[in-house]
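Re: your question from the hallway

Yes, I did run it. Sequences:
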Amino acid sequence: MTATQEKPVVEAADFAKAAINAKLTKKEKIRFLREMFRIRRFEQTALKYYQAGGSMGGFLHLYIGQEAVAVGTVSLMGKNDHVITAYRDHGHALAVGMGMNECMAELFGKATGCSKGKGGSMHFFAPDKNYWGGHGIVAGQTPLGLGLAYALKYKGLKGCCMCFLGDGAVNQGVYHESLNLAALWKLPVIYIIENNQYSMGTSLERSSAVKNSLAERAEGYGIAWDIANGEDLYEVRAKTWNAIRRAHDESLPTVLEVDTYRYYGHSVADANAKKYRSADEIERYKTDHDPLRLWQDLLIAEGVLTAEAADQLDAEVKEEAAAAGQFAIDSEQPLPQSIFEDVYWEVDNKTDAGQTGRHFFGE
Amino acid sequence: MTATQEKPVVEAADFAKAAINAKLTKKEKIRFLREMFRIRRFEQTALKYYQAGGSMGGFLHLYIGQEAVAVGTVSLMGKNDHVITAYRDHGHALAVGMGMNECMAELFGKATGCSKGKGGSMHFFAPDKNYWGGHGIVAGQTPLGLGLAYALKYKGLKGCCMCFLGDGAVNQGVYHESLNLAALWKLPVIYIIENNQYSMGTSLERSSAVKNSLAERAEGYGIAWDIANGEDLYEVRAKTWNAIRRAHDESLPTVLEVDTYRYYGHSVADANAKKYRSADEIERYKTDHDPLRLWQDLLIAEGVLTAEAADQLDAEVKEEAAAAGQFAIDSEQPLPQSIFEDVYWEVDNKTDAGQTGRHFFGE
Amino acid sequence: MLTTYRKAINEALAEEILRDENVVIIGEEVAQYNGAYKVTEGLWERFGDKRVVDAPISEAGFIGMGIGASMLGIRPVMELMFWSFAYVAWDQIINNAGQCRYMSGGLLNCPIVIRGPANGGTNVGATHSHTPENFIANTPGLKVVCPATAYDAKGLMKMAIRDNDPVCVMENTLLYGESWEVPEEEYVIPLGVADIKREGKDVTLIAHGRAVLTALKAAEILEAEHGIYAEVLDLRSIRPLDEEAILRSVAKTHRAVLVDENKPFCGVSAQIAATIQEKIFDELDAPVQRVNSLDAPAIYSPALERIQLPTPERVIQKVLDIC
Amino acid sequence: MLTTYRKAINEALAEEILRDENVVIIGEEVAQYNGAYKVTEGLWERFGDKRVVDAPISEAGFIGMGIGASMLGIRPVMELMFWSFAYVAWDQIINNAGQCRYMSGGLLNCPIVIRGPANGGTNVGATHSHTPENFIANTPGLKVVCPATAYDAKGLMKMAIRDNDPVCVMENTLLYGESWEVPEEEYVIPLGVADIKREGKDVTLIAHGRAVLTALKAAEILEAEHGIYAEVLDLRSIRPLDEEAILRSVAKTHRAVLVDENKPFCGVSAQIAATIQEKIFDELDAPVQRVNSLDAPAIYSPALERIQLPTPERVIQKVLDIC
Ligand SMILES: Cc1ncc(C[n+]2csc(CCOP(=O)(O)OP(=O)(O)O)c2C)c(N)n1
Ligand SMILES: Cc1ncc(C[n+]2csc(CCOP(=O)(O)OP(=O)(O)O)c2C)c(N)n1
Ligand SMILES: [Mg+2]
Ligand SMILES: [Mg+2]
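Structure:
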């Protein structure tokens, strides 16, 4: 069964009253709306170019429908809090503050891309913003996130690492090895399972045997866990904050499962996007559970902003996305010799080590 | 904490009354005693030769102290029940009925060894006895055991696979992947964790974060689990039988954790055997918890056999072990050309496939 | 009949499922989804849950499971969505599929096939573009084939499934949509037999997988523009390897250029070059040349990945260097 | 001072722990147990829980963790009890240590060392005797060194720990107890510099790791019994590779025999042989010869494993074939 069916139904209102939310200023609430719009418009623009063909290659995994998860969790990050995720990484990248330009240019494989065109859609990075990618191998990032937490504890810094993974990723062994290490060594890592109910075309029921939920597997390691409704920004923030406090104050891990949904296929190449899920299901989520619409309506109801202001904000974001597309188009292709750059730090930095012995073979 | 501290204290007597034990004949009970003696005397003989030097190489992991686990579980095997274990495999090998000769010869690396001297101590095999080894990579056998169960179900055979692993092996990711697959596909596999409380020099507390026990992690997959006292043959049989019935009748997996103890070091090469455990602890197990002594006393108390008969039986087994040592010594070394045999089935069987193209390189 | 590489493999799988009740297809999205690259399209509908099985994302677990099942006589054909994902199951493939027969003194064998695409060129990035045929071929106990055409893919796949040892079949996402002549009637291609894809006399281009097409393109241009007649030898199978065919051709042309999408260091072409110079040194009129993928992780940038893989231009240059 | 290979590495670790507060040793049994092979003996007592850490049997988990920590500036030195166990962590090593810098366009680097023994010869069987230096060296983004002596082991280990890229150090359980001269004063050995372990003029024996000792023994006998003066070149570092030193020596002797404990197909010696014939073909008076481990999984039988590894006898035979 999906975790959804199990978790106690709670009023969004409860979470609005949570201290971490109660103290939010109007400005902050509006910024969250803007961040969610940025993700959605950025990806819709990218999709347009992808489908037009010729400018992008490889995969394009869209985050649309899950925006409240990245924006809500990232909104709580402090100086020493870090983020790492899988290949569905545009949302987290924009949420930590990456510019649309370098992200769009990366999709185009241009030299101006955040990864110089070397990583593509699955590999956005911004270490200067505590953002560590962007990883293509399912669950491959889970021990890396553990390591970021290890480094924080080793250095005596009060921080944590939020490591995102999908509902299908929980069945990679390395995630379990990481859970045991996190509990055994009391590491401030938060595993956030973005449960969008499908791993490619496979529903959670067909991929995971559970008692009640995926997060509950943490119980076997004595790790605290919780489940959150990902359509509600307030709830995401409230429950993530509990985990962050546990990490900061007790240096303990948490597994947080967030129920969410992706509107598009697994990737743009997903020919069966509407085969393994009913059109109704997708429609229901878009109409009744859209995190953007819900948040916008909430803010309007709260009197935080007017419908007009919201449209205005959206219009600005659309322009930002359109400009990013143009930026990507106008950017230069990386130079052929750059193929051999960024392989070895010592070579790139022309150190003695980098100039001793042969590092590259063939032509 | 170790599972021991958690499990309800039960009288061995209870388990003696279990149907599967109540129907045991004197002959069978005595055979179990003989099997346990066979394991212990075989290994003591092997140890003698190993320490004398010159005849064996590599590792020698002794099972002494854990005999009731292999003998108790294997005693329940039917026609379509299979066994696979790790490198501490002498006990299971002898319990399934392998001869001391081919086992001892394998330790000597002789051509007459069960694996023709190619596998050594960690790699005893006897597929004709449903015994699939003998595996050196920690937890590497856990998906293989799953596969044996998969094959049984695929062929419509009512059987199961008992897959043994250690308390340290539970932290290899592939074991968790196997648990999910076993539950998801309802496969008749029984994971038997032989919890001897240490993985090499590391106590369970230092390697595994648990709620109460290692077996309990199965809960997260909705898999049935239990804990057994490995010093009591009756209890091991009673609880294993529940798992076998679950596998046979419902085609469902079980995780069974059996508390036990090894008297010797991790392997004969373990220089610290007495450093990470107190001499008292080891002594306490040998005197108060020895599965052989407990079973022998029980049988004498039950009037199944006399002390003299037991000594007589032990004497016979000692002779069998001594003879096996002589057999190994007298056996031929494998021939140099055998290095290239048993690599490819098609080559060994001189089929067209085996004779097409080059299969081996270099000299 | 003109058939795509994808369809040819699909037919091979269907025919073997029908031929042998123990053949079962297992992998991620192979059943209800019809395969991430549609190689298994229609098989689940046609043969049902028992013969075509969707697996969770647990490569080590389900490939290890397939290996164990094969010891009991099941003949699993495991799909890796990308061969790159073999690295999370590496221990199972190398140690359990590759070493168990030996360690048991031949008491068991593992008739398992592990198949999927192993190639760069589609801008999926460094983690999804590995070509581990050299790693597999380094491992006695394992076999590996890399078909370059639909005809070879079907014949080799059927043979691999019937082989009683573990066979790794490395396909190519860039070839799935390409078409070749494939006969109606059944056929198999033995492992370990190379194929001369183009006759020539001046130089031998030795390749496997998609690099064979690169070599053929280069050969065309060499003939048309330089009057050089290149023989193109498709290894098809890396282990077992048709060494005789390699030596025979080079002994005839006296020159060899190896085209190989492996990274250079210890790539398949390193082994072939070492073998040629060792065994027919005196037949060589020039050193054996190698054209590999440029020696860096696979780059995403579509503009650059194109030139990171071996190109006909680079092959031609090497040939002109020695002819 | 005469020091064992084991002690030399132990000193290197201790010195680097003292030099850099970010150096931390992590692995199974490295702390309280003093290391399965006693390489880390005394370090935990001396430096405590923070700097020397015992890990559960979760290689993928803790090596991946070390890689992540290294991105934030920690310099983990991870012990693999056997390099063979790297196969359960293969994806972490190849993809996360090897590819992340590239995929991020150089925004991060992973100053991690992964060390442990990688060798056959102690009858621990096929699953425990892998020598993956050829696999690692095939992978741009990773570095790998294989020290043959205590002196080299210490100097290379210190350099590896200071290197800002991921470095794999492959040791040898058969060498841990062997002694060599190691100076009191501190020193490091740069990666990528080969070492002539014995001067000669008639043939060059090229080796790495323990095979260097096999080559030296063969060289002694060749001189004493055959009057052949073999130069022994120790690669020390496989990637980066000192190609100049290789070509210089072979250009001098005009003959090369490679001694390599890798399995033959795509072993390190295949790469070296291919390179020599490609770059100094005209300097060669005979084909480059290779001596590798016999091409089967590592056999347990003590009587046979001895001859499965390269022996001085086999090296001598190859030399006599071409001299
Ligand atoms: C080890 C590995 N196996 C398979 C894949 C192919 N793959 C990429 S994403 C994916 C589905 C993952 O689903 P989930 O974890 O739920 O994340 P989501 O896509 O829903 O965000 C699969 C099978 C991969 N990248 N890595
Ligand atoms: C993947 C892997 N890592 C490490 C080892 C080395 N090793 C062999 S046995 C062992 C301890 C295992 O302990 P446990 O699982 O409790 O089994 P026990 O030895 O107690 O029977 C270790 C670390 C190995 N063989 N495989
Ligand atoms: Mg999902
Ligand atoms: Mg144990």
